[in-house]
Design a protein that fits this description.
The chain is α/β, with parallel strands linked by helices. It has helices at 2-9, 14-37, 55-77, 82-105, 107-129, 142-146, 158-169, 181-195, 211-218, 244-272, 293-313, 332-336, 346-356, 367-375, 381-393; strands at 44-47, 50-53, 149-153, 173-178, 199-203, 224-229, 275-280, 318-324, 362-364. It has a seven-stranded parallel sheet, sandwiched between helices. It starts with a helix and ends in an 8-residue tail after the last helix.
Amino acid sequence: MSQWLRERLRQRPRWMNALMLFCAYMTFVHMPWDFFIKPVAHDAEAWFGFLLHGWGAKLTEPLHWAIYAAGVYGFWRMRAWMWPWAAVYAAQVTFGMFVWNVVYVGGFNGWVSGLVVLVPFGAITIALWQARDRFGRAPGSLRERYGEWALVTGASSGLGVEFARALARDGVSCVLSARREDRLRALATELEQQHHVSTRVVPADLTDPAGVDQLLDAIKDLQIDLLINNAGFGYAGRFDKQDTQRLRDMVQVNCVAPTLLASHLLPSLRERGRGAMIISGSIAGRQPLPRHALYGATKAFDLLLGEALWSELRGSGVDVLVLEPGPTESEFRDVAGEIRAVGEPAVDVVALAFERLGQQPSVISGWFNWLRANSLRLVPRSITALIAERVVLEQTPIEMR
């Protein structure tokens, strides 16, 4: 735990860690004390250097609270949106400190002290403004960070296609694997012509227990540096109405195949001291999911496996991420037998995955999906299951309900 904390703190300079700790103090100590405990009559808040008292102060405290909470999260994750907003807020504080001294200290002393405080606060503002490259920017391209070759399973449609395109744009050559060879070859031609990378097409049926071995045999001469465990499918309907063989196939593709591929490829990545693995999970794995019972269970398996491997491999140079999208523009709903609905663009989901790779163990795509997945922690499991069933039931064909 202490090693992990030191690694996290080394991601930013000491002065920025100090700002993060100050934001944490304001978020978890000072602002809760002010809002919940301090009497209204004694309350005071400063905005742009001018003091508000009583209820004027109390009613504006939630905004201050939100700003400092965003600061803690933004510094901890080094989010791209922190620039320029951290510098802008620091500039507001700098201006406010000058105004406060001039107005409330007053006279010659007020002007002198106001000019004096401009130095440290102005320095912080300038440092934050110049720190743009530190926020949300990974060091180098995917090829520079991880290596030359990636294996993408489920590469014939949806997220798999966009994973391959994003990798190729960063100069990574791709092994493309799925069942539909014609689609794979069309994608391979696109990547070679547009991005001048090498490709290898390996048709494989991962529902077949021998499919993983056939895939691994076809790439044994390559050094795979990035493993994109993307292949998977769903199956909507009441469990007792579902076909047993298709349920077996789902476990094979969603759980067994990524496990075996990871088991075969991760040891060499760790030995080389660099590489990455992304597992395509789903927010379905965050709660019991009636009418999608086994699919949700397989994605819970993927989530727990990936997060555990993230912890095991931290500090080794090998990054692991579980990507948890909600409804996405892909063939998933057609294959699963669900009623069609609007989904998030697959290209946006993949962009998020590569943005967060190396920063955290898992990521939920979309703020609403994140809110939905995490709010369910606050209610009993029985209620969670009933709520999930009501949502999924509307997407399930009548004959499978």
